[in-house]
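Q: Convert this sequence to structure tokens.
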Amino acid sequence: MERREQNKDLVREQFTRTAQIFGDYAVASRVAEAERLARMVCASANDRAVDLASGPGTLALRFSRHVRWICALDLTPAILARARRSAVQGGLSNLGFVLGDAQAAPFADGSIDIAVTSYSLHHMPNPARAVGEMARIVRRGGRVGVLDIFVPEDERVAALNNRIERIRDASHTRTLARTEFESIFESHGLRVLDTHVEAQPRPFEHWMLVAGWRPGDPAYEEARQLMEDSIPDDAAWFHPRFERRENARHELFFENTILFIAGEKQ
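A:
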């Protein structure tokens, strides 16, 4: 319990500090991802849905266009307030907002049609518990959707990948392998309906910026050195490389590899 509470404190600290810059990035850049997950879980106008660990409403703001009602639940007041402002600005009236823990969701068993989450499981000490909560609150025949980064099965590669992630963001716990996602779904009675893998190229500098770091900061420089050192054999599975930009400057790019997975409660 102590570790879980410490982790929650780290999450609140990270996403309070970066609520504006991360919120702006996530809401603007992840529209297509949210729409893909909505299709995968067959979101429809009669559905009641929950976006657990919603952050700035990355999924909830898009799902609200497809479902009857959706609740955005998150631990961090600042990032939840950012989601609420976006809903007001967008004239979206079928959203609710709840301050709470995705690992102890305040919803009755079988009371929801769809439960989704994005980029959250790697912030949790026990991601299976969160998926278990999603499975608990959806009705039989209800759908669960997750999208998140994942790593290869190779333990050494995964260890370096996670080391870089934790330097960037102290609230990062561990990125799962693809087989772990599938195993967790199965263990909670969720039949996998669909999966999709997508590579997401990103400039290293912007990736660090939305986490609150700039060039010269110790965390920035340590993460960048490890990323550059991994280039020859892609030792951290970030596929890093230098690309020449219009100003002739060589910029460090890398890729996050994203898994979308949708399941149905049996």
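The beta strands are 48-52, 69-74, 95-99, 112-118, 138-149, 190-203, 241-244, 250-265.
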